[in-house]
Specification:
Length: 573
């Protein structure tokens, strides 16, 4: 057991604030790098210069395994996600048309929506897929409908169909019969049409109009065992079928891997703009939103995790540039259909040791904030960044998967989304003397000085400042004192109520408490109650802050790999 694991929660807080422990508790780390800040830092905000509406890009989530959504912990987590912004949160998942019994396992799920009788006639059964959609909709979470994967009876290469992948196996083993094109595109189109029509009949036109519909997943990777043109054909048949059932449906794609995916994203946009439609024979194909995936690249060096935030931002920027080069599409909403620190939620290993603790949260805060800046730089319309993380039912607690909760215990990253959800209004610029620019972080990541910055916004009664202390290297470092200095506050000569939300190694981090218990597997009932209590988001009311000459300032101690939200609220006069 490491020294961190032996500490009480109170001891860990004291040590953290002194800069003596790592935010990823539970392993012995080398000395802090020389570049970590030790002096006070001022984050300057001008409340009189809004940059436009702060878009809630954080409100998209997803996973490989759709059937977890109907299990106890899955339903509970959907409830937590829906509570962030009821009716405004979306859930994307693989395997909604995959053949099987509806029992989940890692990187697998099924609904048995399509089978065929002895004569080859279609048999549709929406029972399981309805249950998946219902689980979200009842809790305020809408479907981001992925049209896939290929039913066994329709696949051109159906055997083997059901994979048995496990962590440590070759990733390529998952690509079985479900990944192939259909034997009959007309049958595929009829399946998509009947599914869409069923959804309209069950949920109503207005509801289904609010969903996203996209065909397949990563057609430039092993998820699609057809050619590029065969994917364009699948896309054309899919969106035509959706639009036949609901002409006002929102359709898009292509969910390419690695941002532009080489030339794939450009070729797809060219097809939608000027290609020959495989269904109609006319020019072009409908496109209401553009989607791609962007992942970071963590490694394990010198005994610790080193994140790769630059890889995710560079991939995103490259895709934004491609979209911006098409005048007919540059204005369309963009959803980064998977935006994550790494590429495999169900994988395990040393380089993925960031997931249980607060490092995942600080990475998310720092990377999502930069997405606004990259979109602004490229003059594109980013609408969402989808976090490919949910939960893994009936797996060991804190097993190292990329998830938002483990065995029903919230992980620190979920608190960052809770903080995001509290922000509103117009985005405000944040400045500091030594702030890393978005170009610098995109090029080199955060390998020298730590990234201490903020995302800020203002509405009619409140100013919100989400601040983080992030570094790619998960090693111990000094805490930083950040002065949040807001100028041109519109409510002069008044007192502001200040509420602080905080997640770091000692706040909202049940993983550290579990390690302090000796890492029981599984925890007993009393230990689970303690973990549930330790997992709660820390909320404090700070002393009221006076506004003098339209300026207000508050000092905030930020431990390494921490995230804090300050809400300044105008008090009734």
């Amino acid at each position: 057991m490491s020294d961190n694991a032996k500490m009480s929660r109170r001891e860990m807080l004291a040590a953290l604030e002194a800069g003596l422990v790592s935010t990823q508790a539970g392993h012995d780390d080398p000395a802090p790098p020389n570049g970590d800040p030790s002096a006070a830092i001022t984050l300057g905000i001008d409340a009189s210069k809004p940059l436009g509406v702060l878009k809630p890009i954080w409100r998209f989530f997803g996973c490989d395994e759709p059937n977890y959504a109907t299990m106890p912990n899955g339903e509970a987590l959907l409830g937590e996600l829906g509570a962030l912004s009821r009716g405004n949160v979306y859930f994307r998942t693989h395997n909604l048309l995959t053949t099987g019994d509806g029992k989940p396992s890692l990187k697998w799920g099924s609904t048995n929506a399509y089978t065929e009788d002895a004569s080859g006639n279609p048999v549709y059964d929406w029972t399981i897929v309805d249950a998946i959609f219902d689980a979200g909709l009842k809790r305020g979470v809408k479907p981001y409908v992925q049209i896939g994967f290929m039913p066994e009876a329709m696949s051109t290469h159906p055997e083997p169909y059901r994979h048995r992948w496990h962590p440590g196996a070759k990733y390529e083993e998952i690509y079985t019969g479900w990944a192939y094109p259909p034997k009959d595109y007309a049958k595929w189109a009829e399946l998509v049409y009947q599914w869409t029509k069923h959804c309209v009949d069950k949920y109503g036109v207005a509801e289904v109009e609010s969903w996203y519909w996209q065909a397949w997943n990563e057609p430039n990777s092993g998820y699609w065992r057809g050619t590029r043109d065969e994917y364009f054909k699948l896309y054309d048949y899919s969106v035509d079928a959706v639009r036949r059932a609901l002409p006002t449906a929102r359709v898009g794609g292509p969910e390419t891997a690695e941002g532009p995916g080489g030339t794939h994203l450009r070729a797809f946009l060219e097809h939608c703009a000027r290609g020959t439609n495989h269904v109609t024979g006319k020019v072009g194909s409908p496109l209401d939103f553009v989607s791609f995936h962007a992942k970071g690249a963590p490694t394990f060096v010198d005994g610790h995790v080193r994140m790769g935030i630059a890889a995710e931002l560079k991939t995103t920027d490259d895709a934004f540039a491609v979209i911006a080069s098409f005048p007919e599409f540059a204005h369309l909403p963009i959803v980064i259909g998977e935006a994550d620190p790494d590429g495999c939620a169900a994988c395990q290993g040393p380089s993925l040791g960031y997931r249980n603790g607060p490092l995942y949260g600080s990475y998310t805060a720092a990377s999502f904030a930069r997405l606004h800046e990259l979109a602004e730089k490229r003059s594109v319309n980013v609408e969402g960044a989808l976090t490919w993380a949910f939960e893994f039912e009936n797996e060991p607690i804190f097993a190292g998967f990329r998830q938002l909760a483990s065995s029903g215990i919230d992980l620190p990253v979920l608190h960052v989304f809770r903080m995001f959800s509290k922000m509103a209004g117009n985005r405000l610029a944040v400045s500091m003397p030594s702030q890393s620019t978005v170009e610098e972080v995109t090029l080199s990541g955060v390998r020298g000085d730590a990234d201490i910055s903020a995302l800020a916004s203002i509405d009619t009664r409140r100013i919100y400042v989400l601040a983080w202390h992030y570094h790619d290297d998960d090693v111990p470092g000094l805490s930083a004192t950040a002065t949040i200095a807001i100028d041109n506050v519109p409510w002069s000569d008044s007192l502001l109520r200040v509420t602080q939300y905080l997640v770091d190694a000692a706040h909202g981090n049940a993983f550290a408490d579990w390690q302090a218990m000796g890492s029981p597997q599984p925890p007993d009932a009393a230990q689970m109650r303690r973990l549930a209590e330790a997992s709660q988001l820390s909320v404090r009311t700070l002393p009221k802050a006076p506004v003098h000459n339209r300026r207000v300032s508050v000092d905030l101690v930020l431990a390494r790999q921490s995230v804090a939200l300050l809400v300044f609220e105008r008090m009734p006069q």
